[in-house]
Structure formats: C-alpha cells, structure tokens
Amino acid sequence: MLLGAAMWFGRPYWQARSVQESARISASPPEVILYATDWCGYCRMAREFFSANGIRYTERDIEKSSLALSEHKKLGGRGVPLIVVGDELVGGYNEPALQRLLGPWINR
Fold it and tell me: 98: burial class by Cβ within 10 Å (0-12, 13-18, 19+)?
C-alpha cells in the first residue's frame, strides 16, 4: 500500500520529466563545430565518432584557415580537437562528454 501511494503521488514528477525529455529529443540538434588539423589522431577519432553516430558537424582546419585559427584562439583553444556543441566546449577527444551532449541525436 505504501508503494502504491508513492507511485500515485510521484506520478506528476515522472510525467513532467518524460515531457521534458520528449521536448529535448524533439528539439533540433545543436550546431557542432570541430576545430581540427589533418594530421591529428584525436581529430580523426572525433570525425569517426560523428560519422558512426549520424551527427552532422562543420570542420574548421586551424592550419588551413586563418579565420578558423582566430576563432579557435578566441574560444581558448590550446590544442586540437576543440569541439563546440551548441554553447558547450569540449577540449580534446572526450567521448563521454560528446555522448552526454549529443545523446538524444545519436543514432543507436
């Protein structure tokens, strides 16, 4: 009986949470920008992660574009890859962070 009461009174919380999750999932994916170089192994791993998971991204090579290098510096970039997901920065290749930020849009 106690379990039943807990389920009944907790119900609005669970429903609200599922509505919030549904809204987040139905929202459009965030813009993803990869600041990278051709020779960087971790940049290659980031490209492979995006490709394997159906994530669209824009790549900006900091060695081939002075504009990309300038943007990279303004973001506080000290190395590559530097990944921008919406308003969040991911320094280096950090798959758990990318999964957390892009979870609803990852092809499973």
Answer: buried
Q: What angle do CA 88, 108, 87 make, to 5 degrees?
A: 10
- State pLDDT tens for residues 4-58: 555 555 555 545 555 445 545 558 999 999 999 999 999 999 999 999 999 999 9
Q: Where are the domains of the chain?
A: 32-105
State the Cα–Cα distance between residues 57 and 31, nearest whole angstrom.
Answer: 7
Identify the architecture of domain 32-105 in CATH: 3-Layer(aba) Sandwich (3.40)
Q: Are the C-beta atoms of residues 55 and 68 closer than 8 Å to each other? A: no
| Chain centroid to CA 16 | 24
pLDDT of residue 27: 84
pTM attached to this predicted model: 0.76
